[in-house]
Prior knowledge:
Layout: H1 3-18, H2 21-27, E1 32-33, E2 36-37, H3 38-60
Antiparallel strand pairs: 1-2
Helix pairs in contact: 1-3
Amino acid sequence: MDRRGQRLAAVAVLGALALNYPLMTLASSGNTLFGIPVLYLYLFALWVLIIGIMATIVERGR
């Protein structure tokens, strides 16, 4: 596996860990920020971050 594949795999594993039970409970406190539940903001921000990092890795390799 080349270095780009290793980086993508590492990002996928870190993303899976960030979506695991212990960290999700920290965000699911029931609090809101600007009227939006913190859990939703956490999930959306994590999703955008993972996609952005993976896009950067893929585009950099070209």
